[in-house]
Description:
This protein has helices spanning 3-23, 26-58.
Amino acid sequence: MGQTEKEVIRAASAEVSREFKILINVDDLDSFKQSQHLILGRLQDSNAVLAHFNEYSEH
């Protein structure tokens, strides 16, 4: 890969990064993070219930 091609790829990557920064709202990211945290908590709760059920089923 030539130097010019690398420069073009780097410039394209920089432009895509700038576009994402424009598109993504900080409040949206915060909301997304809170949703992920809530889902993680629910999955952990479900896992604990299933583990308890499996232990109960063994006995």
